[in-house]
Amino acid sequence: MALVTTSQKEEVSVASTSTSVEEAMETEEGSSQAGASAERQNPKHRLVHLDLKGAPPKLSYLAQVIPLFKKFGATGLLVEYEDMFPYNGELRDLAAAHAYSQEEIQQLQELAKEHDMLYVPLVQTFGHFEFVLKHDTFRHLREVDMYPMALCPSNTESIVVVKKMIDQLMAAHPDVRYLHIGADEVFHLALCKTCKLRLAEQTWTDRQLFLDHIMTVLSYIKVMYPNVKAIMWDDMLRETSMTHLQAYGIGEMVEPMVWCYLPRLSGTFLTVSFEDLWKKYAAVFKSAWIGTAFKGATGSSQYIVPINYHLQNHMAWLAQLDNIPSSLTVQGWALTGWSRYDHYATHCELLPAAIPCLALCLQTVVHGGFTEDCDFHRKVSEELGFSQTLQVQLVPKIKTIAREGRFPGAKLFQGVHVLVNLDADYIEFLNGDSRYTGWMTDYHVRKNFTNPCHLEFIIHMASRLQEEFTKLHREMDSTLSEMYDPSTVEEWLVVHFKSPIDKLSEILRTAKTQIERYSSRTTCSS
């Protein structure tokens, strides 16, 4: 952090296969880890997060995969629009050129309703405000003028913009029961002169300034949309004192989504122990959510999904359930699938490449655990069209690449597996114990002290790699275009192919130029 696909006509419907994970869920959903109650093990909701700020899929693709989400255990969607929402009027600059239309927003909600899934839209209200603050029109709302991440809570125009964003989002989602207000990772807080002055005058801490802004947002939602319950990420609350949380009354206004994407939830959660965290949250809130990750949590430029890493994350959370006080109701899980680390970052794993991981993670939550020989591992693999159980250990280099899979985006899933091996071969060629590193260093080239015998082999290897990159580039260009808009396709291909293809072209030019210096050439086979 975080490809190729067939046409819709060629894709085989997973729903038509004879062995149904849905049937298995009916018989096994009550199972759980020892010690955890069935209610805790299987809370009401399992939301799949759609992070649309990076690689937003076409609606035609989402229409194919949302039924799969439901089949494997999802009960709802957490939809993070950012600039893919069709803001209008004074906010029209916030919408990307390829933003969804109002009609598409309605279609997406209808898809969820058709499959009896909860729909939770997410609107940023404090941090991760880059898609707003990058515009000159709104630059004056930044907490730090140089950085576009967080708005200034002391600028009276900030809350005006936030309210307008909420109103436009809610107008497009009149029937939702929940609204997620983001509010995570406010990295720049209480840094401007106005905020510092407020802190001094009110004798506040920076966390009180945070709470003041969030409570203003939450109060607006409660007054204007009384039937809507707010959710927020919990990270900015972890180090906020219980006294302050209770004094502001935030527990009556919002449900925190407690997130951690690591494979092991060790004794500390940032600088706060889980024991203290649950004790504090139970004293403040009535309900909370769990936030896990099925992709987008292992590197900002990751493109292949490390399935085992994410399975371990979900199993760690399952083990944590017994530590949550019974007075704190766990409303559900949100399985996040990040597409970018922030608005300016490149893509991490694309959704089609993560479908198998998502399916296994959902089933892990449903059944209360995972082992490689568990029954649902086999059933999920069969449902997705694999002849063998899915490999969960995938990196750094995959030993075998299955040209299999019958699910929407299967060729894309296969393509990233081809790419990870190709990248490994390329890195080995550049940096390993090879002819290139031994006989064609910058020193050798500068001194024209090269051996044609080895140069010919270097040309052979570089040509092969270049041909394979070019072929895969062509395949992925075609397949990505079926699911994504042109800007997404262009970005993904440039990021993952331009550098190696350009470097290999440079190596070939240099090697051929060196060989041309020799009037007679000797061929050396290897």
From TrEMBL:
Q: What Gene3D superfamilies does the annotation carry?
A: Glycosidases
Its EC number is: 3.2.1.52
Query: Which parts of the chain are coiled coil?
Result: 462-521
Tell me the keywords, alphabetical order.
Coiled coil, Hydrolase
Q: Which InterPro entries match?
A: GH, Glyco_hydro_20_cat, HEXDC-like
- Molecular function terms in GO for this entry? beta-N-acetylhexosaminidase activity
List compositional bias (Low complexity) regions by residue number: 13-22
Q: Where is this region: Disordered?
A: 1-43
Known catalytic reactions: Hydrolysis of terminal non-reducing N-acetyl-D-hexosamine residues in N-acetyl-beta-D-hexosaminides
* Biological processes annotated in GO: carbohydrate metabolic process
Sequence ranges assigned to domain Glycoside hydrolase family 20 catalytic in this UniProt record: 97-241
CDD domains per the record? GH20_GcnA-like (cd06565)
Q: Family per UniProt?
A: Belongs to the glycosyl hydrolase 20 family.
State the protein's name: beta-N-acetylhexosaminidase
Lineage of the organism: Eukaryota, Metazoa, Chordata, Cephalochordata, Leptocardii
